[in-house]
Specification:
Strand order of the largest sheet: 3-6-5-4
CATH class: Mainly Alpha
Number of helices: 17
CATH architecture: Up-down Bundle
CATH topology: Na+/H+ antiporter like fold
Strand content: 5-15%
Shape: globular
Number of strands: 6
């Protein structure tokens, strides 16, 4: 794939810087124009009187996801059956192991080790689950129904809200930046695309099920209808748009034009949409960060440990199964990285733009780039571990 061969473009190379600038910009915006983000978030689609989809966030997330989905050649998925082991490894790690290790690590650190730093009595206000109408004062999971500015919301422990964001990150394997990580690690581009396609399709069915199950285990709101709706809007819609537009563009413009021109134009679109979403998120959470800047650290530590653990487990398993390095590296990198676009979107939809869950998913973006670059470097230094 031509775009991958170019490695990281200008936007991707400095993504950590852009994220940092968005944090500052969002905090400043929240301080001097606090009603701006609230006004945008109020522009939502409602079902039975309950806000379900934030239109600005939905638009931003579509433009994050579409450039990713349009890159996928689904004809490669059919060929994936010839490489049973790589497909089996990515499915087992990403769907049978990773979500549960993320839950365990986040629970230990946020619910036990760091709870006193987060605040043992600190609470967060999150959206009521879609379709649920309980009287004020009722208990639901670990939360209590309260009336906030005339709207019923759930008041839950703040650390559990952060846990929810970690869960949504852990159950979303990367299908975006991993194309860049695999290229930098000199992995097999075809294999990487197959894994991206496989995980994108599986996500349609398992993201909501596993995510909902783990949220329930964590005594958090489990809005199943909203979970399924988020998959439809943030995964299925851009996937279908990518599939059909890819076919049409290649048929009318040719494969060379599609790969060398069209995909190159789309690259900054994904990053720009992500950064705009981050500005909104941090404009709402700026007061929390200013009051307790170490919040970012408490969330980042379990996320970083999870990333390293899953990478090491997958890399080791690939070596034991006799993978070539070109397949082992992208397999491990896919497992280690997260699909933070979908996690952010789902957290905002389920819990609200101002929730701790949304903040936790943003922290995932903040640490992903430098950490994944370090793991890419480790892959490059250990190519000799694998058969040629």
């Amino acid at each position: 794939m031509t775009e991958n061969k170019r490695g990281m473009g200008f936007f991707e190379h400095y993504l950590s810087l852009w994220v940092a600038l968005c944090i500052v910009g969002g905090i400043v915006l929240g301080a001097y124009a606090p009603e701006f983000a609230k006004t945008l978030d109020s522009m939502s689609l409602e079902v039975n009187g309950a806000p379900v989809v934030s239109v600005p966030i939905a638009v931003c997330l579509f433009f994050m996801m579409y450039p990713i989905m349009v890159k996928i050649d689904f004809a490669e998925v059919v060929k994936a059956g010839r490489s049973v082991k790589p497909v089996a490894l990515t499915l087992v790690v990403n769907w049978a192991i990773k979500p549960f290790t993320m839950y365990a690590i986040a629970y230990v650190f946020l619910g036990l080790l760091f709870r006193q730093f987060i605040g043992t009595d600190a609470t967060d206000l999150v959206k009521m689950p879609f379709g649920l109408d309980l009287p004020v004062g009722s208990d639901y999971g670990s939360g209590t129904v309260v009336l906030h500015e005339g709207v019923k919301m759930l008041e839950i422990p703040l650390w559990r809200s952060y846990l929810a964001g970690c869960i949504l990150l852990g159950v979303a394997p990367c299908t975006a930046m991993v194309l860049v990580w695999g290229s930098l690690a000199k992995g097999d581009a075809g294999h990487t695309l197959v894994m991206v396609a496989v995980n994108s399709l599986v996500m349609l069915f398992l993201y909501g099920l596993i995510g909902g199950f783990l949220l329930g285990v964590g005594q958090l709101p489990v809005p199943w209808q909203a979970l399924l709706l988020s998959i439809g809007i943030y995964v299925a819609l851009p996937l279908l748009a990518g599939y059909f537009s890819r076919r049409w563009l290649i048929a009318h413009k040719g494969l060379d034009w599609f790969e060398q021109r069209f995909l190159h134009w789309l690259t900054p679109v994904t990053i720009a949409a992500l950064l705009l979403t981050l500005v909104l998120l941090f404009s709402f959470k700026g007061d929390v960060i200013i009051a307790n800047p170490l919040t970012i650290v408490w969330i980042a530590i379990p996320l970083a440990l999870q990333t390293v653990l899953i990478f090491a487990l997958t890399y080791w398993a690939a070596k034991q199964w006799g993978f070539r390095y070109e397949n082992a590296a992208p397999s491990a990198l896919i497992g280690a990285s997260n699909h933070f676009e979908v996690a952010i979107a789902t957290a905002v939809m389920l819990f609200g733009l101002s929730s701790g869950a949304a903040l936790a998913t943003v922290v995932g973006v903040l640490i992903e780039v430098p950490l994944m670059l370090a793991l890419v470097g480790f892959c490059q230094r250990t190519q000799g571990w694998f058969r040629q």
